[in-house]
Specification:
Length: 183
């Protein structure tokens, strides 16, 4: 699952909660410091991907006439170009591999800045972080469906894409995350 910029705080919070609840981890500077460090790393990773996406869009735009002439599938071309340029931008395309890499980077940050202390193998801590990513990704679609259906069943019709819809969606989304202990 590709994270959206507004979701990085949720994932970082989930990581903070999961580490705080792990019996073999202590957070000397508190959970919020862990959340802030994780969010910063995740945001930086998403910024790399946005830069890559912009470069791919630029390449496609420069070759628009050729793409149209060849009747090429633009979505497929986008993915192929992105895959080719990803290493240059430091972007890992496979999400499990990306979450694993991010878990390592976050763990290193927590260790280097004394944000987490533990007496177990680093892999156990990395696995807690990786599991946080996976659980969020797995819950996202289910929560999205629940929120969409709640909005759809409301007496007052709310137009998708409107500011009112976005605010309502965000509030209901946060409620669902809270119910699951992810906030």
């Amino acid at each position: 699952m590709r994270l959206k910029p507004q979701q990085t705080g949720y994932v970082a919070t989930k990581i903070g909660i999961d580490l705080a609840n792990a019996p073999f981890v202590t957070l000397p500077k508190g959970r919020e410091a862990v959340v802030a460090a994780a969010k910063k790393i995740i945001d930086e990773n998403l910024a790399k991907e946005r830069a890559l996406d912009e470069k791919v869009k630029s390449i496609l735009s420069e070759n628009d006439e050729e793409i149209e002439f060849q009747h090429a599938d633009e979505r497929q071309l986008f993915f192929m170009i992105k895959k080719k340029l990803a290493p240059e931008y430091g972007v890992i395309m496979n999400y499990d591999d990306r979450y694993n890499d991010l878990a390592h980077v976050i763990l290193d940050e927590l260790y280097e800045n004394y944000l987490a202390e533990y007496d177990v193998n680093e892999n156990q801590i990395k696995n807690v972080i990786f599991k946080s990513f996976k659980e969020f990704a797995n819950a996202y679609e289910e929560i999205d469906d629940i929120v969409y259906n709640k909005i759809k069943k409301m007496k007052k019709e709310v137009i998708p894409g409107s500011q009112e819809y976005e605010l309502l969606y965000e509030r209901l989304y946060q409620e669902e995350l809270s119910k699951r202990g992810m906030l």
